[in-house]
Amino acid sequence: MSRKSSRSDLFLDRPRLLWPMDACREAITREMARIEVSGSLYQSAATVLAAIDGFALMLTGKRDYFHLKGHGGQWDHGAISQRRKEPVMIGSGDLFANVSTRLNDEEIAVLAELPGVKIERIVSTGQASPPGFWYDQGYTEWVVLFAGSAGLLIEGEDAPRILRAGSYVMIPPHARHRVEWTDADEPTIWLAVHSGRFSG
To answer: Choosing a second label site near 161 at 20 to 30 A (CA), which of 1, 35, 105, 178?
Structure first.
C-alpha cells in the first residue's frame, strides 16, 4: 500500500541528506576492500550500503543515484560535485618483464587479487609435477600460455594435452591434473586465473 506524501516529505532538504550519505558510502566502500569477504563485518557493511542506496532511491527516484556521473538528479547540490575525490590507483605492468631463462623452481607472481579472484603469472623453465603428484584444487582455474610449451595431463585422459602459446584450458574444481613437462629450451609463461574459494 502506497503512502501519500506528507508536508514534511515535500519540504525535505534532499541535498542536505544526500551529501553526507554519499560521503558515508564512499568511506564504507573504501574500507570494505580491506575486509575479509566472507566475514560478518563485510556482510554488515554491504547491508548498510544497500540501506543507503535504498534511501537514495526514495529521495531521488533513481536506483543508481550514487553511480551516475554528476548524480544527474534534480536535487543535486554543488557540494556533492565539488567535494574532493581520492585519486584512482590504476595497476599496470608488463607480463614479459624480468622473465628468467633458467630457474631452479617455477616462479609464481600474483598480478592481481580481487574478492574471489586471483591472477598469477607463472614462469617455468623445464619444471614438471613431481612423480605421482596431482593437483586437486577447490576452485576453478583458467590458464593460458603466452610463451613456451607444456604438457598438461588431466586425470582420466590417455595422453597429456600439448599447450603452446595461445593455448588455454579451464579446469573445474577438483579435476585432478598435473604438469608432465614444460619447455626446457625457452621459458614457458602461464597466466593463471583462479576463481572461487581458495587459500594462499
So the answer is: 105
Alpha carbons 27 and 85: distance in angstroms, whole number:
11
3-state secondary structure string across 123-159: EECCCCCCCCCCECCCCEEEEEEEECEEEEEECCCCC
Neighbour tally for 22: CB within 10 Å: 19
pTM over 0.85: no
CA–CA distance, 20 with 17 (Å, rounded to integer): 6
d(CA 73, CA 94) in angstroms, rounded, equals 41
Q: Which CATH class is domain 107-195?
A: mainly beta
Question: What pLDDT, in 10s, does the model give residues 45-67?
Answer: 777 777 777 777 777 777 666 66
Residue 78 has pLDDT above 60, yes or no: no
Label residue 56 exposed, middle or buried (CB < 10 Å: 0-12, 13-18, 19+). buried
Residue type, 50: A
Express as a percent the part of the chain with pLDDT over 70: 74
User: Shortest CA distance to 179 belongs to which of 142, 148, 136, 150?
Assistant: 150
For residue 2, pLDDT beyond 50:
no
Q: Are 181 and 128 in contact (CB under 8 A)?
A: yes
Indicate the DSSP class of residue 170. E
Q: The C-alpha cell of 76 is what? A: 543535486
